[in-house]
Amino acid sequence: MFLYDTFPKEFLWGVGTGAFQVEGSWRKDGKGPSIWDHFIHSEFTDAASTAGSSDSYAFLDKDLSALDFLGVTFYQFSISWPRLFPTGMVETPNEKGLQYYSSLINALVHKNIKPIVTLYHWDLPLTLQEKYGGWKNESLIEIFSDYATFCFQTFGDRVKHWITIHNPYLVAWHGYGTGMHAPGEKGKIAAVYSVGHNLIKAHAKVWHNYNRHFRPYQQGVVSIVLGSHWIEPNRSQDVLDINNCQQSMERVLGWFAKPIHGDGDYPEEMKNKLHSFLPSFTEAEKNYVKGTADFFAFSFGPNNFKPPTTLAKMGQNLSLNLRGVLNWIKLEYTNPRILIAENGWFTDSHVKTEDTTAIYMMKNFINKVLQAIKYDSINVFGYTAWSLLDGFEWQHAYNTRRGLFYVDFDSEQKERIPKSSALYYKQIIQDNGFFLKESPQGLQTHLPHLLHPTAHQPNICGGVRDGEQLNTEGGGGWQVAKC
Q1: pLDDT for 52
Q2: Residue 404 lies in a domain
Q3: Residues 394-402, mean pLDDT to the nearest whole number
Q4: GO terms for molecular function, please (predicted)?
Q5: How far from chain centre, in Å, is Cα 311?
Q6: What is the DSSP letter of 455?
Q7: pLDDT tens across 297-312, in order?
Q8: Is residue 356 part of a domain?
Q9: Has residue 317 been placed in a domain?
Q10: How far apart are alpha carbons 277 and 319 in whole angstroms?
Q11: Nearest-CA neighbor of 66 among 385, 458, 464, 319?
């Protein structure tokens, strides 16, 4: 089922990046090292190639031109904490870093593009890891709040949308469980949930700080990006299968969503099964944590948790049905206002500008959002295509590309070349949705890979071939597609 219709008139269209992924210049102009700088230089064999990335720090004007090309209404980007404060402690800010972010924000405001600013997208100042043990230490809650306060004071006159932390699930699970992300600690289950606990309390403290001291005159909003998979039962009428799916969602999305968007506490299933590892909230902390998000910022796509293949035997099937998970959020958390804060697909590193699978996935994802709005009365107010540029894709380094714009990382000028997906997204933004402009026969002639993916990629199921491994990040490794 495909819906030809338009989004609400005030719907927001945007695109996003993470600072560590695109800025480059990791030792330039006084920037301090982050845990990711340390991680890749100790774990990656080709660490030298990560120094440049897309070089957004050096080529800000090219990023702005790419945003102009797309015609977006907002740009979601993150501030590199160690570029502002090299040691992580809020002392005298690094002047060059401060100038860079001020220039970026001023340019966006001048172009009438809303800046949505993420305070923490995984690049923790290395000093805070070495001195305090990173997010395992409760001291970081206060230190993070000081950093956020500086950003509110400095940029809050122009920034009205703030994200505290990007996808805390991956910070905790991959940073301290699988070791796939910085700081690369493995198998420490108690640390995983301790980190998650501290991230929730850090977010809540920043939200209350903004609410009390900045919102009255800055009139902005604050949230946290939560990421998830979506699971559907093998047998839709089987209670056990359904319960397994519900538990899977609670272990991933509910871990952070229920405390913040729900009643201030963890899901009962987690408390029962993980009581020896999972920290507890006091009654005062529950009241402090709940309600600390002005909208539900949601990430969905290949960056998120993918359950181990054994879960399929428990009656669970991984699904890319974005409409399904939006309905789950609506039911679990009393129909919140939702921003799709990260969504997109990937292409292999050798693919340059003809990223047809990414277009197919984009069309599917965005249409599911439209269906959720029109058919299910779900209050989605904006969509973030991920990502603006090709960049450093975490443990996949440069072996995977997620940008709407192609970047030759070996070139000096790092030109941003629009891919087919950029052209397609630009058209969706202009139309504010999907118009049936031609006869079906005409569309088949011009866009066979969109309407009929089987024309060039046989047996595509969620963007992969039957029997092919899903190339996604997650706590459980790889899974073979079953079409």
Answers
A1: 63
A2: yes
A3: 88
A4: hydrolase activity, hydrolyzing O-glycosyl compounds
A5: 24
A6: G
A7: 999 987 654 545 544 5
A8: yes
A9: yes
A10: 29
A11: 385
The number of CA neighbours under 13 Å toward the Cβ of 237 is: 0
Q: Is 379 within a domain?
A: yes
Q: Please provide the distance, in angstroms rounded to a whole number, between the alpha carbons at the two ends of the chain.
A: 17
- Could you tell me the residue range of the domain that residue 61 belongs to? 12-438
Report which of 315, 325, 139 is spatially closest to residue 226, judged by C-alpha positions. 325
Q: What's the CA gap between 297 and 410, in Å, rounded? A: 35
Q: Are the C-beta atoms of residues 234 and 171 closer than 8 Å to each other?
A: no
Here the tokens at position 258 are: 């229920």
Question: In this predicted structure, what is the pLDDT of residue 472?
Answer: 34
Q: Provide the CATH number for the domain around residue 249.
A: 3.20.20.80
**Which DSSP state fits 245?**
H
- Which amino acid belongs to residue 464? V
CA 120 – CA 114 distance, rounded (Å): 19
| Distance (Å, whole) CA 149 – CA 151 | 5
Closest-CA residue to 61 (of 108, 98, 119)? 108
DSSP-derived 3-state class of residue 205: helix
CB-CB neighbours of 95 under 10 Å: 11
pTM for the model stands at 0.89
Q: Is-contact 243 273, C-beta < 8 A?
A: no
Is beta strand 380-386 parallel, antiparallel or unpaired with respect to 338-343? parallel
Sequence-distant (≥ 6) Cβ neighbours of residue 315 within 8 angstroms = 233, 234, 235, 238, 240, 241, 242, 244, 245
| pLDDT tens per residue across span 406-415 | 999 999 999 9
CB 372 within 8 A of CB 332: no
Confidence of residue 1 (pLDDT cuts 50, 70, 90): confident
Mean pLDDT taken over the chain: 88
Whether residue 227 contacts residue 300, with contact meaning beta carbons closer than 8 Å, is answered with yes
**pLDDT given at position 315:** 67
- In degrees and rounded to multiples of 5, residue 482 shows phi and psi of -115, 105
Strands 405-406 and 417-418, by their bridges, are: antiparallel
pLDDT per residue over 213-224, tens digit each?
A: 999 999 999 999
Please tell me the total count of domains within the chain: 1
Count Cα atoms within 13 angstroms, Cβ side, for 126.
14
Residue 470 has what pLDDT? Answer: 31
Q: By three-state DSSP, how is residue 30 classified?
A: coil
Instruction: Tell me: pLDDT of 256 over 80.
Output: yes
Structural element, H or E, at residue 382: strand 380-386
User: Could you tell me where the DSSP H helices lie in 333-439?
Assistant: 356-376, 420-431
